[in-house]
């Protein structure tokens, strides 16, 4: 199908873009990479009268370290994240996730901000940001505000972004020594949505005791899901076969997958447990490197 007709605007500043969103109200949508919005428009699931293209706005594409926080601009392309030396230094999980997002053509254009603002539990970055305890920065006519990742996803394609706000940055605390992270998803073919996916970040002390844990699950819940019981199963304990099995069991129980062409509910729960075990082992391996 072809999208219905619309008006196009390409503001040169963030203030101008926000002013346009305020002016056109619910008839306007923000365009960044477009890989989520444009297909929805073609299927007539989204019918904006105005597209506000923010790609010409400066200072929204960066990966930098400031005051113990890693800051990623909303217009940063997936390909830039995939090859960032700074992210590889602190978060090997990003090398995992970006190579599993669609294909190189999509990654050259798709943005991390658009991925998150879309609010789709089937996307990969929501689970990763939950595991990393990220903070979302939104900018509107009243200025900037910070949104904890656990408060960002509200429902099916629904986020905490208010009318007239634009997601402008993601902030992730720099991990302490002894931290490792990993992500993987099971997919039917390259570039497909996940049958199930798991993101893990772990911090171990010098004695091998887990002092912090983050778990995010992909496409096995209506809303991006933090596996809280899995985190609690590890914190304060050594990483053993028993504690890993417990964390895997909790994750498979606490998610709510739907049976579809990618698999039955039972199968998806089983795959969540398998992936949790594998990602814990992978994160621990990366700590020792």
TrEMBL record:
It comes from the Bacteria. Pfam families: CO_deh_flav_C, FAD_binding_5. Signal peptide: none annotated. GO terms for molecular function: FAD binding; oxidoreductase activity. Gene3D superfamilies: 3.30.465.10, CO dehydrogenase flavoprotein, C-terminal domain, Uridine Diphospho-n-acetylenolpyruvylglucosamine Reductase, domain 2. Residues 1-177 form the FAD-binding PCMH-type domain. The keyword Isomerase does not apply. Keywords: FAD, Flavoprotein, Oxidoreductase. This is Xanthine dehydrogenase family protein subunit M.
């Amino acid at each position: 199908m072809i999208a219905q007709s619309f008006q196009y605007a390409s503001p040169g500043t963030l203030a101008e873009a926000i002013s346009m969103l305020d002016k056109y109200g619910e008839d306007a949508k923000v365009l960044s990479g477009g890989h989520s919005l444009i297909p929805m428009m073609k299927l007539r699931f989204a019918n904006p009268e105005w597209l506000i293209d923010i790609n010409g706005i400066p200072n929204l594409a960066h990966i930098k370290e400031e005051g113990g926080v890693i800051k990623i601009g909303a217009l940063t392309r997936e390909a830039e994240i995939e090859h960032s030396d700074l992210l590889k230094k602190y978060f090997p999980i990003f090398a995992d996730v970006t190579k599993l997002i669609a294909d190189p053509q999509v990654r050259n254009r798709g943005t991390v901000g658009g991925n998150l603002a879309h609010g789709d539990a089937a996307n990969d970055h929501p689970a990763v940001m939950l595991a990393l305890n990220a903070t979302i920065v939104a900018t509107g006519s009243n200025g900037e505000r910070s949104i904890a990742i656990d408060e960002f996803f509200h429902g099916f394609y629904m986020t905490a972004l208010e009318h007239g706000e634009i997601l402008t940055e993601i902030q992730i605390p720099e991990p302490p020594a002894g931290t490792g992270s990993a992500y993987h998803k099971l997919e039917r073919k390259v570039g497909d949505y996940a049958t199930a996916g798991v993101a893990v970040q772990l911090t171990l002390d010098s004695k091998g005791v887990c002092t912090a844990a983050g778990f995010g699950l992909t496409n096995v819940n209506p809303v991006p899901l933090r596996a809280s019981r899995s985190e609690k199963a590890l914190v304060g304990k050594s990483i053993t076969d028993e504690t890993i099995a417990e964390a895997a069991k909790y994750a498979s129980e606490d998610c709510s997958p739907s049976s579809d062409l990618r698999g039955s509910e039972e199968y998806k729960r089983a795959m969540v447990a398998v992936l949790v075990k594998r990602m814990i082992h992978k994160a621990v391996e990366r700590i020792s490197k």
